[in-house]
Amino acid sequence: MTSDVHVAELQARLELLATSFQRSPLYLTVTDLSNDRYLEVNDTFCQAIGFTREEMIGRNAVELGLITPDGRDRLARELMAMAAAAQRYPLEFEIRRKDGTALVCRYWGEVVQTAAGMRLIAAAENVTEFRNERLARESALAKQDAALRRSDERFALAMDAISDGLWDWDLASDTSYFSPGYYRMLGLPLGGLETSGLGWLARVHADDRPSLETAIRECSAGLRPHFEGEYRLQATSGEWLWVLGRGRPLGRDAQGRALRVLATQVDITERKRLQLGLAQNDRLVSLGMLSAGVAHEINNPLASVTANLELLLAQVTRLPGLPSAAAADLADLARNALDGTQRVKKISRALSTFSRVEPVVLQAVDVNHALEEAARMANAELRYRATLVSQTGTVPPAKACPGTLVQVFLNLIVNAAHAVDDGKADHRITLRSWAADGGVFVEVQDTGAGIPSEHLPRVFEPFFTTKPAGMGSGLGLAVSKRLLDECGGDIRIESVVGQGTRVTVRLDEHRAASVTPEVPLEPAAVKAPVRRRMLVIDDEPLLRRALARQLAEHHDVVAAASGLEALAQIAAHPDFDAILCDLMMPEMSGMDFHARLVTQQPALARRVIFMSGGAFTASAEDYLRSVDNPRVEKPFKVSRVLAMVDEVASLR
Question: Full-prediction pTM beyond 0.70?
């Protein structure tokens, strides 16, 4: 009886085990290792792969197409490794269902020795969805990583491409990051800046540092939303760069303190130079206007003095009862005084030429004379710096604009004077001129410090200068080159540091005409062959009386103090052979007077000779170019005016 009970219990247990085996959610298999054939598989596995139990028993996984031979060999190796290490851990591999679709399993296996032989008891679970989810997560993470890498690359490229500087201060670690543009701006290798906190402020100019440091700290402490300001940074070359810095905090803690401060620095050095250059240019324009005004104010009384001296010189020998020796002495004194007025005249005319904005009208110009005028104007810069050596030769006239050429030579001579300003007494500035191959050449050479080779390509850039502050605006060479370009000329610079600089100007030879040399001043002894009736108009009483007295020896002269008075004189007696009229007068200018004559007395308008003291407005220049009337510059020789009177008197 007891034996029957044990058998029944055993049979019940076996049935329970069989049921559990078949219904287990795991995929269960038993394999005979002697022939690699399935001895048993559960229903769960069969349903998962689509085979029946009958189809699988007695066959192996390779025959059924569940696994490839390589996959089986890998699985066998893994099982052997587990057995050797006395460990059991799940293996993950892929099998194929009957319909060819993939199934990913997590697999446990153990080899068991039975009376019938070696058996492999294996269990597996379906982890396909988990694997797919994991792969999806891994793929998403990989995409995120790739996107982050691309973003980092783009950020790095952007930071490298931006010429402005970027500064990022992490307050938690008290470290700073500087963009590549920041290093390039200062001429430093990457990593060459102090990155601890505000250590980089050591490169800020001492005068700008306190206010900048205060602004940054107040911004980081939450006392201001941002900061902005201009300050100076010292580059590796020693040059001070003007920088516009803008910054703001990023994030704040519970106490309102910033977590980071981000700022940009823009190099505004060129803009600063431009602003200073424009201010300097404004001063130069004002100086030009002042020079023209001074020349005008000098020329009017100078013309009066010259006219009176010429008249005195002409009459001194005719005074009755005056001993010949005394007459000779008085004539000599008058000549000396006239020589002095000629020197003043040259200075005044140089001022007027330099300050006048002339239209570019190319004509025959004596370059030696232009050099002399420029040297005379630069005398104050030259006197205590160097010896001026003139080695000018006999040259043909050049095709240029007179005022332009004087300005160019003045710029070059002043630059040479500044180049030798080192306290040495043996410096020389040499002026040369020669002609060759259809061109006229002028050279200004100094024995100064010279220009470094790296600066030579930039010397013609506007506002570029190597001079100390206050010694120049950096416009001289740029303006000179532009003016020479307008004349069809050229300029070349050669320089050696420590030996000096040579500047050579080339102009085309003017072949259409020659320059009439200036005739030395002589007493006005030539009388007009025909006595004519003249009208002299000038608002300066001294000059008006002197001209009237001087011209009265040759013609019948009527004087008028204004254009309105002159019109009244003409209305009463219009039979004037010539009219000598000042160009710039109050109430009615010489242009307005002439324009009135054109409508009322056109024939008389043709016989107007304009006088000028050197100050011109743009409208005056335009008007003079629009008419054919002759013009004479004060102070003038009476002989020249007399010749003009004869010329215009014939225009009846």
Answer: no
